[in-house]
Design a protein that fits this description.
With about 220 residues, the chain is of the alpha+beta class. It has a single domain, classed as Beta-Lactamase, CATH 3.30.450. Helices cover about 35% and strands about 15% of the residues. It contains 7 helices and 5 strands, in the order αββαααααββαβ. It has a 5-stranded antiparallel beta sheet with strand order 2-1-5-4-3. A hairpin with a 7-residue loop joins strand 3 and strand 4. Helix 4 packs across helix 6. The longest helix is centred in the middle third of the chain and has 19 residues. It is globular and about 45 Å long. The N terminus and C terminus are likely disordered.
Amino acid sequence: MAFQAGGQRPAPRPVPASPEAQAYLQDYVTLLEAVPFPSLVVDHRWDVVLTNSAFASLFRAVGPHPTAMPSDNFLRFVLFHPDAGSVLGEHESRWCLPMLAHFAATVERHGHDHGLQAIRRDIAQDPIMEAAYRQGLPHWIRAVGEAAVESDGAVRPLLHPDPRWGATDCRIIDETPATLRDLGYTRLTLVLRETRRPAAVVRRPRRTRRPASHLSVVQAPES
């Protein structure tokens, strides 16, 4: 049984078998739904366990994808979904690279995890993504500092489909209680800012330039 505000997902992921843990998550759904900002609960693979209606609203215009929907695995969405840049502003530099760096650190801790290895294989199949992972990340981390890898406190641009928000920023806040952390989950909330970003600096993805990949911050090595 898996939980998600607004209904049960069609392909449920395992959750703790303890009745107490399941009851806790059931009540946590109610708490999550009361939050006005997009909020999600993920495991160490970034598999999404819970979301709220504000999260669904943020990604409501995202097209279907067999493996990278934002409500299934948020890391896969950021890295592989062709529509990710239509919601995540400055997608490559402000979302992809930090998430790749976070993924690399997670692989070091959970190297034999089958789910993480599947993501690693998909990265390897994309030459540009693989170049970013192997060659670009060390340079990027040295340039921006280790703190840029952390999600908590990061301010990143968003392109909200609701015109009341439009092009804005969000601060990512990790607000994971001890009980949720003990279950192996992390809760992240995207606190939207009232101040809009200038529309002129917003760049939407140009799919025709790179049909095989939407990552271009790090160029693939020449053969």
